[in-house]
Amino acid sequence: MSELSTLARPYAEAVFKIAVESKSTPDWSEMLKFLSLVMQDKEMIAIVANPKVSQEQLTALILEICQDQLKEQSINFVKLLVQNDRLILAPQISDLFEAYKAEHEGYVDVELTSAYALSKDEQKKFATTLKKQLRKDVKITTSIDKSLIGGFVAKAGDKVIDGSVIGQLQQLAKKL
Amino acid sequence: MQLNPSEISDLIKKKIENFDVSVEAHTEGSVVSITDGIITVHGLSEAMQGEMLEFPDNTFGMALNLERDSVGVVMLGAYQHITEGDTVKCTGKILEVPVGEALLGRVVDSLGNPIDGKGTINTTEASPVEKIAPGVIARQSVDQPVQLGLKSIDSMIPVGRGQRELIIGDRQTGKTAIAIDAIINQKGTGVKCIYVAIGQKRSSIANVVRKLEEHDALAHTIIVSASASEAAALQFIAPYTGCSMGEFFRDKGEDALIIYDDLTKQAWAYRQMSLLLRRPPGREAYPGDVFYIHSRLLERASRINAEEVEKLTNGKVKGKTGSLTALPIIETQGGDVSAFVPTNVISITDGQIFLESDLFNSGIRPAVNAGLSVSRVGGAAQTKIIKKLGGGIRLDLAQYRELAAFAQFASDLDESTRKQIERGQRVTELMKQDQYSPMSVAEMGVSLHAANEGFLDDLEVAKVRDFEAALQSYMKSEEADLMKTINDTGDYSDEIKKGIQSAIEAFIKTSSW
User: Fold this and answer.
1) What is the ipTM of this complex?
2) Interval B127-133 mean pLDDT
3) Mean pLDDT over residues B468-482, rounded?
4) Where are the domains of chain A?
5) pTM across the whole model
6) Do B42 and A2 touch (CB under 8 A)?
7) Which residue among A125, A167, B288, B478 is buried most deeply as judged by most CB within 10 Å?
8) Residues 6+ apart with CB under 8 A from A171
C-alpha cells in the first residue's frame, strides 16, 4: 500500500499541477474518481493484468468505458498510464489528488466519530474548535461508533485527537 | 513481603483520583506488513528516528527506517499477536531505560525490566538509550588505574579509568573469565560494574550471575541480559542500555566499569535487522554503518572532568571526576583478527588484550599473548609499584619470545641466552593465575619483585606457583603492615623495596614450598 502511493505520487503531482493551471480541478477530481472506480472492478483488474491484451486494446476499452467522462488532456493521461503500465495506480492517484486539492484549498478532511449522533449545533462547535486546533478549514464527515462508549475521536490524515471514553479508559489501564 | 490488599486498593484509588482526564492527540498509522520482527507501517508522518511506537496490547517497536509513505519498525519483543491493519501510535518518546542505584545487584533485560524474580526496581530516573558522547571540553585524561586483579594484565597491559580496552580471542580462550575477575576485583573499590550479555545462552548468563553472587560481587553489579532467544532488536540495543546505566554513575562523579560480552553478536543482530529492513549489505553482509554502531557506543566510555560533573549534577557534586571504563569483548574465528568487526573495534579501542587458544591449551591461563596485547593509555594510569616492576616483566617475556625457539638446544647455548630462556620460562609460569582469585596491588608487587630480583631463578619451573602461593600466605600473615602500606600508597620507595626484599629473604630461610 505504502509503496503504491510512492509510485502514484509523481502522477498525482503532475495531474494536480495541470489541473491548477487550467483551473479545472473539479473536473479532474471527478474524472480521477471515476477512473479509480473503474480500476477497482475485479474484471478490469484482470484485463489490465492480462498480457494478451495489447496496450491499444486496453486504451480503446478504457476510453469506451469512460466515454464522455474524459476530456482531451485526461485521454492523454489515460494513454500515458497505459503506456507506463501504471493503470492499476488509479485509486492511489485519485486519493493523493484529493489530498493535494484539500491542501491547496486550505482545508483538511476530518473524520469525526462519536458514540452518539451529533446535532447540527454540536457539529458546528466541533468545526470551530478543530479549525483552531488544526489551523485550517475543516470538512467534517461524521460517523457513529457505539464502542467508543462516550466522547469523540477526530481523525485528520494520520493525526488523531482522542477524546473518547474508551481511549481514556485505555490510558487509565496503562497507568495502573 | 506480604502485600496488604487494602493498601493496594488505596494505591489504585489514589491513582484513579489523580488521573488526569485529558484529550489525547497523537499520530497514527496502520500495519502494512510483518516480516521476521520488522513491521512496515503506513502513515505516522511525524515519527522520529528511534522513536518508540505503540502497538496493540502494550507492545512497543522502534522506528528505524523513515520513508516517504511508510516507517520501518523493529519490534522490541513478541509480535505474534500483531496483524495487518492494526493501528500504531506515536508516543513522542525516544527509547528510554530506567537508571539509578536501585539497579545494582539486579538482572534486567534490554529495556530495564527486572528478570531475576526479585520484584520491581524502584528507580526514579530514566535516560535515553542513545546519547551523544561527552565533548572534548568535558573530558579529562586517563590517570587512575582500574585494577583487573590479574598479574599478567595489570603489569603489562594496564587499564585506566575511562579507557576502552578490547578483550579479543577465539571461543574458549577465557575472555569472559577475565571480565568476571575484573568485576570481582572491583569489590570494595567503589567502582560500579555493568555486565552486558549479548546473544549468549541463558545458562551461561545464569552461571555468571551465580559466580558473582558466590564471590559477593553482585551487589555492585548490574547485569543487562539479551540472550540468544531474544529479538534481534533487543540484542542490538542492550549495549546502549547498559551504557546509559553506566553513564548515570559517571555523570554523578563516580567510577563505573562496563563489559560488553560480546560485540560480535551485537553486530550480527544489527546485520540481521539491517538486511530485513532492506538496507544495502556491504562487506561480510554487514550494513554500511556497522563501524558507527560500535564507535558511538565506545566513545561514550570516557573520563569527564570535575566541572562537567558539577554541571551535570547541578552543583551537587563538586571536585570529583567521573569515569566509565569499557571492556568490550570480540570473538574471533580461528584467530582471524583481520575480519571486519574485529579490525573495526581494534581501531576504535585504546588497546587490546589478545587471548590465544594455543596458550590456553598449553595451560597458560589467562592466555594473554603479551606480544600482541597493548594498552595505549593505561601506562599513565598504572600505580608506581606495578609500573616499575611490570617493565622488567615485559622485557623478560619479550626476550624470551625471541629465544624460545632455541630452547630445545639448551645445552649448546651460551650462559646468558640460557639464563634468559630460564628466566622467561619462570616469568611465564608466574603469570599464570587461577580464575576467581584476583590479586591486590601489594600481592602483585611482591610476586613481581620476586621475579625481578631473581628469586625464581633457582626454582624448578613446576615449583614456581607453589613458591608464589606460599610466599603470598607468608606475606599475608607476617608482613600485613607492609602489604597495607603498599595497597594504600601504591608506592615503590626504597623503604618498601627493602621491606619486600628482606621479607622474601626471611621467607626463603624459614619456609618450604
Assistant:
1) 0.76
2) 95
3) 93
4) 3-102, 106-175
5) 0.88
6) yes
7) A167
8) B19, B24
